Structure formats: C-alpha cells, structure tokens
Amino acid sequence: MSIHFLNSRTKLSRMNVLAEIAALAISLACLHSVAVSCTPMQPKLYGEAAPEPHAQLDHYRLNDDVLPTHYDIEIKPYFDPEPEKQAFTFDGNTVITVTAAAENVMQIKLHMANMNILSWSVMRKSNSMLVRSGNKTYDKDTQILALHLNETLLKNVEYLVVFNYVGVMEDNMRGFYRSYFKQNGTEMWLGSTQFEQTEARRAFPCFDEPKFKTTFQLKLNYKHLEYNVFSNTPITKSDVIGSNRTLATFSITPKMSTYLLAFIVAPYSTSGDDILRVLSRPEAVNQTTYSIDEGLKLLKVLGDFLEYPFNNVTEITRMYMAAVPDFAAGAMENWGLITYRESSLLYVPEDATSLQQQRIATIISHELAHQWFGNLVTCEWWDVTWLNEGFATYFEYFGTASVEPSWELDQQFVVDKLHTAMQTDGTMSTHPMTHPVYTQAQAAAMFDAISYNKGGVVLRMLEHHMSSEVFKAALVEYVKDRQFKPSRPEHLFAVLDKHNSSASAFMKPWTTQPGFPLVTVTANENGFSITQQRFLTNHTNQEDKLLWPLPITYATKGDEFSNTKPTLVVTEAYNISLANATNVQYFILNNQQVGYYRVHYDDALWEKINNALRSRGFAGIHVLNRAQIVDDLFNLARADVMGYRKALDMLEYLKEETEYAPWLAAANGLATLALRIHPDDEKLFSQHIKDMFAKVYEYVQFQAPAHSDRRLHTYLRRLVLDWTCRYGHDDCSKSALKEFETFRTNSSATVHPDLRQVVYCEGVRKGSLEQFDFLLNLYLTTNAATEQQLTLLGMSCATENAVIHKFMNLTSSPDVRSQDKATAFAMLLNNQYALESAASYLVENSARWAEAYGGYKHVATALGGILTRVKNVTVKETIAQFAETSKDQLGQEAYELITKGLEEYDNNQQFIMNHRDEILGFLTLKAGSDASRTGILNVVVALCLTLLAI
C-alpha cells in the first residue's frame, strides 16, 4: 500500500499514546513538497494510536487447524432503498473450501466484522453431506468467529463452509465502502474496496491473514443500467437476471491473500489499451493519459528487471488502475485492480506541479512493484511488512528512475527516504523492521516510515554491498522461488546468501535491531579511528550497546566519492589506515550516504570539511554528502553531540549552495529549528533565514521554469520561494502578490503550476477573506484533484483570526472529503501564525470537530499537534483547562493524548531555554557582522557614486 502522509507510528502498548502526535509532527516536513497524499509511502498524519488489547495477544491470530483453499463470493449491493433492503447495505453469500490440517478438529475459526450472519453451514465437498453443527461464538475484540461443530472434521478432506449474511457499505473507506462524485450537480454513488491490512472481513467471512493464500471467484449482482463492475480478473460471464440486474462472474484469481481481493461497482468510464486501463469518473477521462503512458513503461521496466512479466501470471491478463474519489491511502496494490486517490493517478499538465507529476509516477511505480513484492510473493504476517513495502519503496524511486532518468531520483531518495527514516528511527519509540504484532491496530501501525522508508534504504545499502548485478540476480531468484507463497525474512536471506555469502549477516542486524548508529571519526598519525554507538535524538549518551555491521566508504578528494562498494566493520571500534592522513584536504565518511548512519568528526576534521565547503566547487564534495553533512549538523546539534553555534556556523556554506538535495535537507532542519527559537529571538531568526537564502533566491529568481531547466532546479525554486516569501523577503512577496492579484482579477490569467504553491499561499497570507474566498471558490469548482491540493494549501496560509476559523469550518465540513481532512489540518499546523486561532477554534467547536473527524480522539490529536509546535504559554494553559473541564466528554484515550501533548510542550520549552543562549549568540553575531558588511558596502557605493559624479 502506498500514507499516505499523512499511517500510524508506534507499535506496542508502551509506545501507543504518543503515536498520533508523533505522526503529525514527523510528517509536517513533507508538506513543503505539496506531494501530500496521505499514503504509507509518507506515513499518516493521523495515525491511530493502538488501544490496549483486551484479549490475550496470541488470541488475535488464527491457528492452522483449518486451512482455506478457495472462496466463492457473491455480493449484491444496494445504493438505494429497496423492499426490505436498506440503502448502502449488501447481501453476501460466501462459500469457503477448507481442509482440516489436524486430527479431532471440532471448530472452525475465521474473521468477520460489521456484518449480520443470517445462516451458516458446513458440508463435505465430495457428497454435500452436512456436518452436524452447534452454535457460533464471536469475539468483538479479536473479530474472530468460531463455528462449533458436533462432529470432528476428517483430516485432509475438503469441506465447504457456507455463509449468508448482510453487510454495510460504510463511509469510512474500509472494507467494501461507499463513495460518491458529483456529475452535473448530482451525487453519483459507487462502491469500492480497501482490505489491507485486516478489512476483507468486513466484506466476507474469511481467514484474514496474509499467509492464507487461496484462489477466489467473485460474482457481483448489480444494476447494469447505472453501474459498471470491475475486479482483479476479467469478467467471464454476464447473466441478466431481472429487475435491471446483471450477475457478473469474474475468472478465478491467482493464489493470493484476502487483502488483495478488490472490486468496484461504479458508473465509471475506462481508457487505455488491452494491457493497461485507467478507470475513472466520466468527467476525468481526459486526465488519464499520463498514467496510462507512464504505467505501461513502468510495467515493462519492472517485468524486465525481474525477468518475470506481470502477465506471466496467467490469471492476470490486464492491469486496471482506478481513481477513487474517497480513499484513505494513497493507493492500494490489489492484484490486477490497483486503486488510487484521484490526486495520485489523474494528471492535468496545466493544473499540476512538476512535483505532483513525479508523485503520480512514483506512486504508480510503487504499486506496480507490489505485483511482484506483495502480491506474487507476500509477507507471511504484518510483523515483516517491510518485505512488501521496503521493496515497493525501493522501486518507487529506482524503478521510476529507469523511465525518467532526468529526474535524478537517486538524489531525491536520500533526503526523501533516508533522512526521513532517521527522524523516526532516532527516537526511543521506534521499532525494528521485523517486529512482533498481534492486534489489528498493531498491524496497521507497521505501515510507517520504518517498514517503508527504512526498508527501502536498507535494500539500497544491500545493493551497494552486493553490487547491482548480483543484487538483481538475487531478486530474480527470490521472486521465482517464493512465487504464490508467503515469505519470511529467512527465505529472502537464504537466497541472498547464495549470491553473496555475507549478505544475510550484513542485512539481518539492520532488520532486527531498532535505530541506527552514530559513527564518530577521530584523526591520528596513521589514519582515522572510528567508533559506533546508537544515535538517539534525546538520549545518545545512553547505555545501549547495539552494534551494526557498518558499510564503510570514504573520500579525501572529489574523484573518490564514486566508490560506494563498502568495507564491512562489525566491531565497536576500527582504524582506517591511510598514509599521510594528516595532509588530506578532508576526510568524509559514507560516500553518497549509501550507509544508514550519522557521522560526527573531531574538531580538526570538521574544520577541514568546513574549509572545503567554503572553497571553490565545494572541493569536489559530492552533492549527496553535502546533503548528508547538512542533515547531520542539524541533528547532531539537536542531540547535543555538537553545539548549535558550531553547527550553524558550518551551515553558512549554504549561502553558496545551488543544488536541491542540500537545500531540501536544510529546509527540513530549519523547519525543526524554527519551532525551537525563543519568541523574543524570532526577528533575528527571520533575518538569518533571509540572509541564508539571499543568493540562492537570486539564482532561481521568481519566474516560471524554462523548458530546458533541470527538474531539480524547478524543485529548488519552489523550495526557495516558499521559504523566502514566508520569512518576508520583499521581492518574493511583491512578485507573488502581483501574480495572485492578476490571477484573481483577470479571468483569462493563469499562474504557472510550479509557482502556485507560493502565489496562493502569499496571496492569502497577506490578504483577507476576499483572497481566501477566491481560492475557496476555486477549490469547490475545480475538476482536478491536484489543483484542490494546491488551493487547500494556499487557504491554510491564512493569518487573520476570522479567516483561520473559516478554514477550520471548511475542513470540518463535507466540502473537504474525509480523506483530505487530516492533510488540511496538517497544512494549517505548518503555519505558525494560525496555531493560536486553531486552538481557540478547537476548544470552542470540539463537538463539531469530533463529529466531522470521527470522535474526540481526533480533537485531542489536533490539539496535541498544536502543542508540539506552539510557543505561547497562554495557548498551552487554554488547552490544559479545556482538557480538565471536558475530561468526561473527551474520554480517557483522548485525555491522555492531550496530556502527552502538554508534556511535549514542556519538553520543547525546556529545549528552547537550554539552547537559547548559544543560538541567540550565533544569531546576534551574524546580525552584527551582516550589519557591518552592509555598512561598509554602503560607504563603498557612496564613494563610487561620488567619484562618478566628479
């Protein structure tokens, strides 16, 4: 599956309470990219904190006494009331072929949720003889239905378990759910599915764990005059059965897990060819061309790489990709019928940014990669989700890179995935890639930055250890070896070791241990000594003795950064021998940041690096190592490994930087630092930001991208304009406001998509209700989901109290779809000027917010997000008072979320006070030196003008 950006963070009960707040805080940096799609590829803003399990943990898992081998499923949905039928319900009939795998089996356990079982029976398949049945029992916590029998099942004999039931098409984007779109002002209803991780049980009783791989045959009973139907496989038969209904029978699926079954009943149109087709609402057919073209290229590239074309699976003769108006994730890899958010699939060149276009391509690549890693070869249980998602994340970037080499996705991967993984993995609440889970909430929580980003990063690291050719050969063998089977890490490791004897020894510690190392480098006469210890943002000097097999590469001059074949170091300390070590211009560890670790150097080595960064061409230091150094400096200072004054002084080199990756790393670091600047020092900090960005602003200019521009140059411009306008750069603000007002007052004017983020935002930031309402109208009337994202982001930049409250009213209204509500609020959280108003709104309108978002837990999550970012003690006290006076209404879980948010506020304030003097000292020094330089420059200019006059 692709977090959406906004899916849960912490794993077991000791970590659960902070999950939602942490998810909000960590994900906010992604908003700068306007690639927001709320997919596990960028974990959820609103993670669902896993409640304390009520049952024993092992009771949440099914046993292996009874094994399914095939499902026959018939679904009959009702979108309107019919005699004795309620709207948005469905009749279901499911027949499961099962085999007893043990002796003396007298009960069958399987899953179901939110359905009414009308009847059930068990019969022997060979002769249809009924098995004498007793009662059924159901555990609502484990969602396990137990069918009790009055006679034993014969071992290794096939039986049929038959269910008749009624289910509900809810609007919560889980199971078989309802959605809608408007056509000529009329609501057009549809039904779609989302079964990962544990939601197939909402559509049919089933063995809802990925290890139970079976075949499926689906029948859909639908009104053919109003709807079309789609599923994983093609329709083999359509029978008109009266009452304007048709019974469509789909061909049998490959052997697969329940979560991969999918079906859609919708008034949809299709476009594409016999290999790949896109399904969409009719008014969006003209937005499907790009996805069809890109999807076809990616299908071929991935099939060629793995030497296994997707349609080698005989049941999958074509690929459907469907754009669903309401979709909780970014996309879902259902075999042969991939479902997407509209903004993750539909593309209008004149209304989408370059980064949104890239996001669509990489999401398609991610989901298509799942056809092999996830569908063909499936993780045995969600404790090893990374076997699905790590590979999909790897191909999300490197698969797309094969089709779009000019996008330089190898550079973007390091900052987007590796740096982001470290932010999550550097905390005590992280977890290993392989990590025990039992409950539904714990399973959902595994779809996070560790399974996705760290999974992909570790695979990239393994590729450089093995070499690309050997890595590819191993993956080809792994896919063929485990096809149609569930997989565990040991299955992957066994294949890897056949191709490189040290592969699993290298890989396993990275998957079974939490966190990552900090490597400290010290120069000596004979070379450089290195030591490793676990890096933690707040607790690096602790007693954790974890060790990792370190992939060591280094460079002392520009032409050495191309070597990414590492030496493995498995000890706590190690010496790198190097002749004339004291004479090298610099020593930089971890070429192109292939290794997943931070690096800290002794003072002399840092000074050499500092001098190199300030020299011509950065002394050949690779752009990815410059991004690495930037990210490390911010985080070493944050963890008190290095002082802020030294770190900020070294980061001054950025004034001459013109590449995207280092600047993106800087923006992420500055976004975190900005939350930790004392309120009285913010003017100095703003001046420092403008000073840092001054030259790069002149380099990118406020202008639309040229056709010949590098893609990363366009991304750099977007980032620079975002920061300079936000911090009051005069030319940026004037240029953006001019563009906005021309667009607002001239119906024929347009804003280039790659300038819209900053133009929309600055127009509302410096405007009032008039400017906000202009964007609101655009949001409500546009036919392009990508444009909706941009207008929503623009409206979130409001600074006036009344406008902010109007934005909060909007996001808690039906005008913002459920899938976009969390994204919209996260956008507002990124606006420091809105936090106080947002807090007052939530306190005053908590009932409205709870109803719109689905409970008071979401009120608490929103307030917790504010508390992690606000600096105003009055706001903190207002929220604290609200929590106490509304404790009964909030409930214990929501109350604890706010309590933890209050603790985070206190921790942040303590951090601010602990580091204020050093940060303020640096800012004051820089302001003074800048003022001196400005004064000298003014004198020189005056003298020159005088001489010219003479």
Automatic annotation (TrEMBL):
Binding-site list for Zn(2+): H366, H370, E389
Record has Transmembrane helix as a keyword: no
GO biological process: peptide catabolic process; proteolysis
Reaction(s) the record says it catalyses: Release of an N-terminal amino acid, Xaa-|-Yaa- from a peptide, amide or arylamide. Xaa is preferably Ala, but may be most amino acids including Pro (slow action). When a terminal hydrophobic residue is followed by a prolyl residue, the two may be released as an intact Xaa-Pro dipeptide
Keywords: Aminopeptidase, Cell membrane, Disulfide bond, Glycoprotein, GPI-anchor, Hydrolase, Lipoprotein, Membrane, Metal-binding, Metalloprotease, Protease, Signal, Zinc
UniProt cofactor note: Binds 1 zinc ion per subunit.
Cofactor: Zn(2+)
Domain ERAP1-like C-terminal intervals: 587-889
Domain Peptidase M1 membrane alanine aminopeptidase residues, every copy: 291-510
Residues annotated as domain Aminopeptidase N-like N-terminal: 68-260
Any one GO cellular component localisation term in the record: plasma membrane
InterPro entries attached to this UniProt entry: Aminopeptidase_N-like_N (IPR045357), Aminopeptidase_N-like_N_sf (IPR042097), ERAP1-like_C_dom (IPR024571), M1_APN-typ (IPR034016), Peptidase_M1 (IPR001930), Peptidase_M1_aminopeptidases (IPR050344), Peptidase_M1_dom (IPR014782), Peptidase_M4/M1_CTD_sf (IPR027268)
Localization (cell): Cell membrane
Residues under site feature: Transition state stabilizer: Y452
Membrane topology field: Lipid-anchor; GPI-anchor
Domain of life according to the entry: Eukaryota
Active site, UniProt feature: E367
Keyword Signal (UniProt): yes
Entry's EC annotation: 3.4.11.-
Broad class of where this protein is predominantly found: membrane
GO MF annotation list: alanyl aminopeptidase activity; metalloaminopeptidase activity; peptide binding; zinc ion binding
Annotated family: Belongs to the peptidase M1 family.
The protein, known as: Aminopeptidase
Lineage, opening ranks: Eukaryota, Metazoa, Ecdysozoa, Arthropoda, Hexapoda
